[in-house]
Amino acid sequence: MSDDDVKQAYWRSISRISLGMTVTLAVIMIVFPFFIPELNAYRFLRFPLGYFLLAHGAVILLAILIYGFFGGQQRADRVHNMTIQF
């Protein structure tokens, strides 16, 4: 494999990871609000459950997705031998 082929494969894998994380976040952020009225019938810590999940769950989900993207990027770096030497 030439150096250009390795770089293309690396960027293809990074693009796939980015697209997967973006689609996951978009689907959850677009689909989940449709269920908020039904979830607001229940309460958690005296807050409506839909509000609580959207307010706090979105931040937690974003943190999980960032961590997952970081892990995927690290894995792609190792697979394609794209580590930076300082």
From TrEMBL:
<keyword id="KW-0812">Transmembrane</keyword>
<dbReference type="Pfam" id="PF13937">
    <property type="entry name" value="DUF4212"/>
</dbReference>
<keyword id="KW-0472">Membrane</keyword>
<feature type="transmembrane region" description="Helical">
    <location>
        <begin position="48"/>
        <end position="70"/>
    </location>
</feature>
<feature type="domain" description="Sodium symporter small subunit">
    <location>
        <begin position="7"/>
        <end position="82"/>
    </location>
</feature>
<keyword id="KW-1133">Transmembrane helix</keyword>
<feature type="transmembrane region" description="Helical">
    <location>
        <begin position="17"/>
        <end position="36"/>
    </location>
</feature>
<protein>
    <submittedName>
        <fullName>Putative solute symporter protein</fullName>
    </submittedName>
</protein>
<dbReference type="InterPro" id="IPR019886">
    <property type="entry name" value="Na_symporter_ssu"/>
</dbReference>
